[in-house]
Amino acid sequence: MNAASTLTARLLAERPRPRGIAGRRYAHWLAVGTVCLGAFLGQLTASVTALVYPALQHRFDAGFAAVEWVALAYLLVLVALLAPIGRLSDLVGRKTVYLGGFAVFGLASLGAGFAGGLGTLVACRAVQAVGGAMMQANSVALVARGVPGHAMRRALGVQAAAQGLGLALGPGLGGLLVAHASWRWVFWINVPVAVVGIVAGWFLLPRTRPEAAPVLPGPRPRPRAAVGPVSVGPASGPAVGPASGPAVGPEPDGGRFDLAGLLLLGGSTTALLLALSTASGLPLPAWAVAALLAAAVLCALALVRQERRATRPILAPGLVNTPGVRPGLAVALIGYLLLFCPLVLGPVLLAEAGLPTAHSGLVITVLPAAFAVAATVGGGLLPRGWSDVARCRCGAVLAGAGLLGCALLPALGAPAVLLAGPLLVLGGGLGLLLPANNALVMRAIPAECSAVGGGMVNMARSLGTALGTALPVLGVHLAGPAAGGRAVLLTLAVVAGLAVALARPVRRR
């Protein structure tokens, strides 16, 4: 090993916790608390940016279709990097990568606050997503590593509550910061949390690799036996964010990561979202919409072919055809579409009704807060005899009713603050729908495929989040805030009905 490799290995080597901390009975809860900081930060970022769009449009003299890429750039990079960063973490150590994620996220947030142009801000958000992926790809695995088996379910529940808290606080905090400080503080607020996360993680997280130097990428001796990390799926607890982190599992000896599939997946989703943005007013030539849609279709077709040939496909066509998996993935996508579309559209509708930004944030907060509470404890309020299918259908019906209320209340001339009522119903319904659907999907997936299946659920969530960000912009551009927003919400209510139809018992072959 040369000098450069030795220095790199020493820098990446994980430090153990101080003995005074590691020996405590509650040491594992300190580790869980550290992971909760990253979970909180990731979901806060997901929901806080919706309130900053109008301020960014004014500051950079840009259209809604351009400003939405502040969110879309983050989502696309996050989806693309979750799987490869998970694999990198197996080589250098999950604690090292997790703490590096805090550092990258904090520095990118600092840069985003100082951005002088929209392009710079979007670039900083893309870098921020690198840090987000480094945290999310390791959060569940760190909990699994540091918590005794008897406390695992409770620990994952605490992590889910932290995610829900971040998601719920985002809109209200964003509205207050934009109204009383500056849009820049929406990004700067992440910096102190990241610093606390680095310090806490250094002292409180257990080492995830032996004391020996980390395994660096490159040629290495042939291993005597394949060793993989603990397989933990994202369905271990109620997922309450756009992507709770991929499931990770043993990698077959000699298996290669499906880089071609990842690039084709990224190409198809990016082309689709760019086409929607162009149709929503992004300043590109008119022919770009057709060209981008054609590129999205071609990449999707090539992706299907690639996944059928790959030894370790990221989408696993055979797994998609397993009874219960395909409709479950569709419901996961629909659920996050129904969650994030109102988060983006709500501030626009409330501003059109004359509600101040700070008040708008408080009204919108009702949606993620109800979602987080229902996802955590809502299942206990339903009859014990209800199956997960019944819980899914109940949640989808409530979500559809909430969307109808959001669409019809403004048309009836009701005060804007009353929108909190249907948002409460919508959030509660989604909080019942998504955990139950998560359980159905992971139950349908064979145990030996839980890692790949969990990653597919994450991709469905992320795609739903991205579409939930892009579709409101298209509706507002085509028909204006009032009419366009109403059309989008009514369409979503129909989509919620589709989720009711897709939620059905699995019939084994």
Give a nutshell description of this structure.
With 509 residues, the protein is mostly helical. The chain contains 20 helices and no strands.
Q: What can you tell me about this protein's structure?
A:
With 509 residues, the protein is mainly alpha-helical. It has helices at residues 3-12, 19-22, 27-48, 53-60, 64-67, 69-92, 94-113, 118-146, 152-180, 185-188, 190-204, 259-279, 287-309, 317-320, 325-352, 357-377, 388-411, 420-444, 450-479, 481-502. Helix 15 runs parallel beside helix 19 (450-479).
SSE order and pairing:
Layout: H1 3-12, H2 19-22, H3 27-48, H4 53-60, H5 64-67, H6 69-92, H7 94-113, H8 118-146, H9 152-180, H10 185-188, H11 190-204, H12 259-279, H13 287-309, H14 317-320, H15 325-352, H16 357-377, H17 388-411, H18 420-444, H19 450-479, H20 481-502
H and E string: HHHHHHHHHHHHHHHHHHHH
Mean pLDDT: 80
Could you give the distance between the termini? 54 Å
Total beta strand runs = 0
